[in-house]
From TrEMBL:
Plays a role in maintaining the mitochondrial genome and in controlling the mtDNA escape. Involved in the regulation of mtDNA nucleotide structure and number. May have a dispensable role in early maturation of pre-rRNA. This is Mitochondrial escape protein 2. Gene3D superfamilies: 3.30.70.330. GO terms for cellular component: mitochondrial inner membrane. Residues 357-769 form the Mitochondrial escape protein 2 C-terminal domain. GO terms for biological process: mRNA processing. The gene is YME2.
Length: 807
């Protein structure tokens, strides 16, 4: 062992360039391979002894053996779907040889090497290639040049970019076997001789890929465990290092089998308590037998819209009828009108206007095609068009969609109205929310007579869980109905083995319903009476994704909800799709695309361009702007009206009566700062006396009211901006208007005077409690005197400013 460490320690600096000096000695056969030649000789009675049959690769003196990894997809398990994709690669010897030739060529037409033999390891997705080394070069130089060519050529072509093929010289004695030992990112190294240390193994294996962990051999276990980041790295290391003899130690490498867990089986085994008390179970069984099939039918209808008139409107027959009359109407319009409508140009402009969001639409569609864990969160400020993107552009052609609006559930003022709202949204009919009130009286009577409750009364949380549970069961039945159709089609098609239910859902993600949870504001509305509904929906949606029976999409303008989802669902990984305001060019293109070509004149475009900049790219504001233009207003007039209307709303809601947490003075102080700077740092805002005590709480409430937008880093507020682009123009309007500025600034100064007066009163009250002529409190007297003097000077300054405002 000491000799091995000394040998590796002396040549550490040479490991980066192994071809300049071979620190690994000429590889003699290890004990496992000592008898290879004897076995081959004893069986050489006319039988074929190629590597695929014997597992041994014979190599001459002027030959070199290299391993090409990820030439074709490898198999992670027996029924790996990637094995069916290899038909697009070509697995014949001619096709693989051509690909190896293309990878090794310095230029597409040059080929200065001689391939003697190719041994394909289909299970591992690699190829052993035996080259004849020219007499004019050494094996090390030949391997080095070939490695450089492959590294360069592997970046060319779509197939190479996807597969990222690699090449490594074979340093050990490879063992070619086709047993069911499927590759994984962990390999087990067995030492025949003194074991290597972690440092030695890191030097030896790091060149094949990034390592996650190394567990060295111990006295109890003579095998080391090495974990790679990628499975392909483990495959390369296994084929290039196994059989290597290093300092008297032979290394034998095998894959560590991957243990696949059945999520459904484990969840059932870990939660054995699934039975209710006998009496409640009987009553519940009666309800299930009678009402649950009916409720399940209506829930299924709510999701699939099978018997809905909306499905008739979307049918091809109805569309063809409507299309016929639309064409006739357009033809008559062209005959009687001289105006040509902006049809093709409008489509192009719409494409341009949606250019920034088309990428989001395609990303959402791609995520819905994933096999598992399709847990998506679409986040963006209010009015950015999240709902339109999801429903009009992503889910318009999906047959199975369930829309849940959290805002309607939160607004419910009673338990009965909440249960009705949940039942309506999921299609839970018939529902009897008044049963709970009846059972409450029954419990009171029973408790008065017997001293015990019947247990029939359920909380609203329990009833909502039951509704969601039945909804989940119905969603699963929808998936199973598609699976049954698949089995029927398969039974008529031949002898193909059917997929299991779990495999079917993974291979056909389109059959899974899409659950859209809209206006999810778990952080903003955490103080509401029905805020528990957020956690219930999050848990329920997480279980649907875990069971792989539905796709889930959250729509939220509350950034804090992401942290709530992370806390509630720590085991679920969700994808975040941000939706922001449109850029200036996209906003302009969107507005212009809404008008006829005859109206889009150069003057009109110039006016729109000048008004779009202060208006911003908020989709709701752009739509309101377009409606005003269609009603006959000029672009400048429409912008002025929107600014005046928004300013009036801000004054009425925030600058007159204030809020529970913040008042008009805090709002006006923030408006002035944002008007001057555009944005303000949180630390700078805390210098204002109105924000010193509870600035974070004030800003959080302002964000909930969509008055400001907070930028956070690691959960801490760093910067404050206006809630939407139009507010910036509104702030300028409020500050520039002399009448509004005079009134709001006067109220602001009065608030500051009141604040300083309260401070002085507190300090004077403290001074009155001290004994007179006490030298012991002299320092405290001086401190309070300075504080009172400072506040008094501030009051004088504020009163002076108020006087200037009135003159």
């Amino acid at each position: 062992m000491l000799g091995t460490r000394r040998q590796l320690g002396l040549i550490t600096t040479k490991l980066v360039k192994p071809y300049k000096r071979q620190w690994i000695q000429a590889i003699p056969p290890s004990r496992r391979f000592v008898s290879n030649e004897a076995i081959l000789d004893s069986q050489n009675n006319g039988e074929e002894d190629d590597a695929t049959r014997t597992g041994v690769i014979q190599k001459g003196n002027q030959e070199t053996l290299l391993y090409f990894g990820t030439v074709i997809p490898f198999k992670s398990y027996r029924w790996d779907i990637k094995q069916y994709l290899t038909r697009f690669w070509g697995r014949s010897e001619v096709a693989i040889k051509k690909r190896i030739t293309d990878l090794c060529s310095n230029t597409p037409k040059s080929c200065t090497f001689d391939i003697k033999d190719i041994i394909t390891v289909a299970r591992d997705g690699g190829v052993f290639v035996k080259f004849v080394v020219p007499e004019t070069t050494t094996v090390a130089e030949f391997n080095k040049n070939l490695t450089q060519y492959v590294a360069k050529n592997s970046k060319e072509g779509i197939l190479n970019r996807i597969m990222s093929p690699t090449v490594h010289p074979v340093k050990g004695v490879p063992w070619i076997e086709d047993m069911r030992r499927y590759p994984s990112n962990q390999i087990e190294v067995e030492f025949e001789g003194p074991p290597l240390t972690q440092e030695d193994m890191y030097l030896l294996f790091r060149r094949y890929g990034e390592l996650i962990d190394i567990k060295p051999a111990t006295d109890a276990n003579k095998k080391a465990l090495i974990s790679f980041k990628l499975t392909s790295s483990a495959i390369n290391a296994r084929h290039c290092i196994t059989g290597l003899n290093l300092g008297g130690t032979s290394l034998h490498i095998q894959y560590v089998p991957v243990v696949h867990h059945n999520v459904i089986k484990d969840s059932i085994a870990n939660h054995p308590r699934i039975a209710f008390p006998i009496i409640i179970a009987i009553l519940a069984s009666l309800a299930v037998l009678i009402f649950d099939p009916i409720r399940s039918f209506f829930i299924k209808e709510k999701i699939t819209q099978r018997y809905s008139l909306n499905k008739l409107w979307r049918s091809s027959l109805f569309k063809s009828i409507i299309g016929f009359f639309s064409v006739t109407k357009d033809s008559l319009r062209k005959l009687v009108s001289t105006n040509e409508y902006h049809t093709s140009g409008s489509f192009a402009l719409n494409q341009s206007a949606w250019g920034e969001r088309l990428a989001r639409v395609e990303e959402l569609k791609l995520l819905l095609k994933e096999n598992i864990n399709s847990f998506i969160v679409v986040v963006g400020p209010k009015g950015t068009g999240k709902r339109e993107i999801v429903f009009s552009h992503v889910l318009s052609d999906r047959p199975n969609v369930l829309h849940l609006d959290c805002d309607e559930l939160i607004k419910a003022r009673s338990e009965s109205s909440l249960l009705k709202a949940v039942a309506h949204q999921v299609g839970y009919y018939p529902s009897f929310p008044w049963f709970n009130s009846l059972f409450t009286y029954v419990d009171l009577v029973t408790q008065g007579l017997t001293g015990q409750k019947t247990g029939l009364n359920e909380s609203k949380e329990k009833q909502i869980k039951n509704m969601l549970f039945l909804t989940a069961s119905t969603i699963r039945s929808i998936c199973l109905s598609c699976y049954s159709n698949y089995l029927q089609e398969l039974s008529c098609g031949g002898d193909t083995l059917p997929l299991k239910e779990e495999d079917f859902l993974q291979q056909y993600p389109d059959v899974k319903p899409v659950i859209v949870i809209d206006r999810f504001q778990a952080s903003k509305k955490a103080g509401e009476a029905n805020a528990f509904i957020y956690k219930e929906l999050a848990d329920w949606a997480g279980k649907l994704v875990t069971l792989n029976i539905a796709h889930v999409i959250y729509l939220t303008d509350d950034v804090g909800s992401l942290q709530v989802l992370s806390d509630v669902l720590p085991d679920n990984v969700f994808k975040v799709i941000p939706i922001s305001d449109a850029s200036f060019e996209s906003a302009k293109s969107y507005v212009l695309s809404q008008f006829e070509e005859s109206k889009v004149t150069e003057k009109f475009v110039k006016e729109v361009q000048d008004t779009i900049r202060p208006l911003g790219g908020r989709m709701s504001d752009l739509q309101a702007y377009v409606r005003r233009l269609n009603s006959g207003e000029t672009p400048t007039g429409a912008l002025e009206e929107m600014v005046d209307q928004t300013a009036e709303q801000l004054i009425q809601v925030y600058l007159n009566k204030g809020h529970n947490t913040f008042g008009p003075a805090e709002v006006w102080a923030l408006i002035k700062v944002l008007n001057d700077r555009g944005s303000v740092k949180y630390k700078d805002l805390l210098l204002n006396p109105l924000f010193k005590s509870n600035g974070k709480q004030i800003l959080t409430e302002m964000e909930k009211s969509e008055l400001v937008c907070l930028t956070k880093t690691t959960g801490l507020i760093t910067e404050i901006k206006a809630g939407k682009p139009l507010y910036e123009e509104v702030f300028k309007h409020l500050v520039a208007n002399k009448d509004s500025f005079r009134e709001l600034e006067t109220n602001y100064l009065k608030s500051l005077i009141t604040l300083e007066t309260s401070k002085i009163s507190k300090w004077e009250d403290e001074l009155s409690k001290f004994p007179e002529n006490s030298s012991y409190f002299k320092t405290r007297f001086k401190y309070l005197d300075e504080k009172i003097s400072t506040s008094n000077n501030l009051i004088i300054d504020y009163e002076k400013k108020m006087k200037e405002l009135t003159t």
